[in-house]
Design a protein that fits this description.
Layout (H helix, E strand, L loop, with lengths): L1 H21 L9 E5 L3 E8 L2 H8 L5 E4 L1 H5 L12
């Protein structure tokens, strides 16, 4: 019985590893963007902190702003169910 449980566990772990490896990575909108004439709007949105953005923008004629996609987010439609 124990060998069967170990075999099932090993098989399920292999299945999860196979499925998890084939799932594409989710997109992530970082909160800060370097913006300016050379990169446009929304700009280079690959900074997780304002300090990172400012360090990258320094000397390039860019400025940092909040990422509009991350700030506004995806509008979610929620269906309201009421108990009458």
């Amino acid at each position: 019985m124990r060998n069967a449980m170990v075999a099932i566990l090993a098989l399920s772990a292999a299945t999860v590893a196979t499925v998890a490896g084939s799932v594409p990575a989710a997109a992530y909108d970082y909160p800060y963007c370097a913006q300016g004439r050379s990169v446009g709007i929304p700009g280079e949105c690959s900074y997780s902190t304002y300090a990172q953005c400012m360090a990258s923008a320094s000397g390039r004629g860019l400025y940092c702003n909040i990422n509009p996609r991350a700030a506004l987010g995806q509008q979610r439609r929620m269906r309201v169910y009421r108990d009458y």
